[in-house]
Amino acid sequence: MLKNIAFIVIVMLSFSACKSKKVTNTSENTTLSSKRVIKNHYINSFDKKTINAKLKIKYKGKSNLPSVTGSLRLQKDQTIWISLTKLGFSVGKVLITPNRVSFYEKINRTYFDGDFTLLSNFLGTELDFQKVQDLLLGQSLLDLKKESFDISFSEKNYQLKPKVSHPLFDILFLINPINFKINSQQLNQKDENNTLVINYANYETIENEFFPREIYIIASDKKNTSTIDVDYKSVEFNKSLSFPFEIPKNYEKIELK
Fold first, then answer.
1. What burial letters (b/e) apply to 74-84, b meaning 16+ CB within 10 Å?
2. Which residue in 42, 113, 101, 46 sits closest to 76, CA to CA?
3. Per residue in 176-233, pLDDT tens?
4. How far is it, in rounded angstroms, from Cα 38 to Cα 35?
5. What is residue 31's three-state secondary structure?
6. Which distant-in-sequence residues (6+ apart) come within 8 Å of 209 by Cβ?
7. E runs forming strands in the chain
8. Which of 13, 82, 95, 74 is nearest to 237 (CA)?
9. For strand 194-206 and strand 209-220, is the pairing parallel, antiparallel, or unpaired?
10. What pLDDT is stored for residue 14 in this prediction?
11. Which residues 6+ apart lie within 8 Å of 26 measured at CB?
């Protein structure tokens, strides 16, 4: 079961970027207010219609999986599609829409077709399509405009913490001082002791989008810690895309417990 859950998360995890009229600092400015940093973060949100990317994924956890390569296609606000291969052979596909999460994997001949509960349980936080897309695009999982934050500058990051503690989570955001993209977002579910850390690294500017070449995710609970390392080999925007997906016959359905 853990291997199947890990597969879903692995194939989802992807990339990051921004918007026209991007905001940048030519040098680190340590005196900006939290409202200005948050405003700049949203000004630099992703502003392309589609993404077509090649990536390499490594997973470590209770059951380690071999490194795989993948093709990711995303149509903003509509579809996330990933095809995974190992040694040139297809090992599975994922299709995520605003209403459903579907995937199949050929190693164990299993599939899942349902809502976001499985992903939410694994990462320890409630997910929907928008949050998954934000995670992949380097945007905050929470709406920063709805809260007030204390801001500090440390270790070359703007550090944002809510002025009023969240009833369920301890929250910390590290914002890149040059491009205002997220360098790290960290959520700790207090009662369950579940922790989710998402780090973004090696930002590049591609077609006026700030894009991290690496994403590193750590999901842990009281018993296990899983890590997912995503390395982007190539990425292009606004290409015409298709999303072929059909669950093979005679595969066993994964049921939530």
1. beeeebbbbbb
2. 46
3. 999 999 999 998 887 777 888 999 998 899 998 988 889 999 988 888 888 989 998 9
4. 5
5. coil
6. 17, 18, 46, 47, 48, 237
7. 50-60, 65-75, 79-86, 89-96, 101-105, 110-114, 149-154, 157-162, 169-175, 182-189, 194-206, 209-220, 225-237, 252-253
8. 74
9. antiparallel
10. 37
11. none
Q: Bridge partners of 184?
A: 174, 199
Longest dimension (CA), the chain: 60
What are 89's two structure tokens? 């052979």
Sign of the alpha-carbon torsion through 47, 51, 54, 59: positive
- pTM for the structure as a whole: 0.83
- C-alpha pair distances (Å), 35 with each of 11, 16, 32, 77, 187: 34, 22, 8, 26, 21
10 Å CB burial of residue 178 (0-12, 13-18, 19+) is middle
Question: Distance between CA atoms of 237 and 142, rounded to whole angstroms?
Answer: 25
- CA-based torsion, 237, 243, 244, 250: positive or negative: positive
Q: Angle CA(131)–CA(234)–CA(15) in degrees, nearest 5?
A: 15
User: Of 216, 206, 159, nearest to 17 (Cα)?
Assistant: 206
Structure tokens at 250: 């005679």
pLDDT > 70? residue 162? yes
